[in-house]
Design brief:
With 164 residues, the chain is α+β, with helices and mostly antiparallel strands. The protein has a single domain, classed as Alpha-Beta Plaits, CATH 3.30.70. Helix content is 26%, strand content 24%. It is globular.
């Protein structure tokens, strides 16, 4: 199972509000040989850490692709750049964020790629849509499902499911 997290909290000059931008980004993956097999609903989430910026729109998608983890990450980053993503400061507001969460349960740690995503088990805005789309998924290191991780999460950051 290949899973990515999607997020954004700034309007795109080309695509408009974050949800439309994220939908367009999912469509753009096809040019890289990546099919979207399933997508969770959309969620609005408070910025983590809290900051004076707009709330994010988030989702999780399950992908189908022959790409190995490193080339897949490169393709995701190419789509981010095409959509205007600028990597300035960590946790800054952004038009588009595509995070590789898991790639077939592989555990990888290189200077450019860490799998599973190192903070996915700490983020409600990842775990809620992940539990929705892949309830049977288990964290490759912790051995817990997304639902179990979500139930153990103590954070108080707010998220809400929105239409779609």
């Amino acid at each position: 199972m290949i899973l990515i997290g999607l997020g954004g909290n700034l309007e795109s000059s080309r695509f408009g509000p974050p949800q439309r931008t994220l939908e367009a980004a999912l469509g753009a993956l096809a040019a890289h040989g990546i099919a979207v097999a399933a997508r969770s609903g959309w969620y609005r989430s408070e910025p983590v850490p809290r900051a004076p910026q707009p709330w994010f729109v988030n989702a999780v998608a399950r992908l189908a692709t022959p790409l190995a983890p490193a080339p897949l990450l490169a393709a995701l980053q190419a789509v981010e750049r095409r959509f205007g993503r600028r990597r300035a400061a960590r946790n800054a507001a952004r038009v588009l964020d595509l995070d590789l969460l898991d790639h077939g349960g592989q555990v990888i740690e290189t200077p450019v790629l860490i799998l599973p995503h190192p903070r996915l088990h700490q983020r409600r805005f990842v775990l809620a849509p992940l539990a929705e789309i892949a309830p049977q998924w288990r964290h490759p290191i912790l051995g817990l499902t997304a639902g179990e991780l979500l139930a153990r999460l103590a954070d108080d950051y707010r998220i809400e499911r929105v239409a779609g």
